Amino acid sequence: MLPIASPAQKKAQDALGAASAAFIRAGEYARHALGPFGARFSGLLGSYQQPVKYNLSVAREVLKQIYTAERLQPPSSLGAVLGSYSTLWSRTRSISYWREIIKSGEWARLGVYAVEAYGVFKVGEIVGRRSLVGYNVE
To answer: Which positions, given as ranges, span the membrane (predicted)?
Structure first.
C-alpha cells in the first residue's frame, strides 16, 4: 500500500516533472535554434539518444524515491524554524554550554564544522566572482 503523499511531496514531484519537461523543451529549442549544428549534435548521440533520455528519467524517479523515503520536506511550520534558531542562540549565549563543550572535547568537532562552513562560503565566492582572486574589472 502506498503512503499518502503530503502537499510538499506533491509540489516537489510537480516541480521535478516541470523541470524535466523544461529540459526536454530546451533540448528541442536548442536543436531548432542551432539549426544544422543542433541536428548534428543530436545526431552524434545517434542510437544513444534513447538510453540517455531513459537514464535521465530513471535518475529522476530514484531522486523522487529518496525524497520520499528520507522524508525530505520543508519545515511544516515557522515555529519549527524559529525554535531551532532560538535553541542555537540560547546555546551561544550560555557560558555553561561552552564550558561543557570544552570539557567534553566537542570543541574540535565544532571547529571542523566552522572550517567547513568557511570553505564552502569561500568556494561560493570564487564561483560567484568567476575569479580566484578579486573581481575581473574589464
So the answer is: none
91 CB contacts (<8 Å, ≥6 apart)? Answer: 97
Q: Specify burial of residue 137 (Cβ count, 10 A radius: 0-12, 13-18, 19+).
A: exposed
CB distance 76 to 6 below 8 Å: no
Cell of 19: 523541470
Label residue 8 by pLDDT band (50, 70, 90): low
Please answer whether residues 11 and 4 qualify as being in contact, where contact means their C-beta atoms are separated by less than 8 angstroms: no
Residue with the bigger pLDDT between 137 and 123: it is 123
CA-to-CA distance for 51 and 115, rounded, in angstroms? 42
pTM for the predicted model, two decimal places: 0.40
**8 A C-beta contact, residue 56 and residue 20:** yes
